[in-house]
Amino acid sequence: MKTQSNVQTTVQQIKSNIDEIASETKNLKNGERFTKIQRMNDLRQIASALEDLDRSVNTLMDKQAKNKSEDA
Questions:
Q1: How many helices (H) and strands (E) would you count in the chain?
Q2: Neighbours of 50 (CB within 10 A)
């Protein structure tokens, strides 16, 4: 489904951003590092929420398809 691939693409993009931020934090001072790490954690939560929502939508769509086939 197109929505699924969009969600997966977005999650992959977020994970790529996390990796990029992680590599940037290596030579930073504590205050700057803390800000970057906080941003990484926020992005991780967003990615996780998107994956959870995607799974929930898939589950609901599967149940709906099952119900329609049982009604037919």
A1: 2, 0
A2: 15
Q: What's the pLDDT score for residue 62?
A: 93
pLDDT for 60 beyond 90 = yes
Tens digits of residue pLDDT in 15-31: 999 999 999 888 889 99
Residue with tokens 């970057």: 36
Do 39 and 21 touch, CB atoms closer than 8 A? yes
CA distance 38 to 17: 13
Q: What is the SS3 assignment for 72? A: coil
Output the six-digit token pair for 8. Answer: 């997966």
Backbone angles phi, psi at 28, to 5 degrees: -95, 160
As a whole number of angstroms, the distance between CA 42 and CA 12 comes to 15
Which DSSP letter does residue 26 get?
A: G
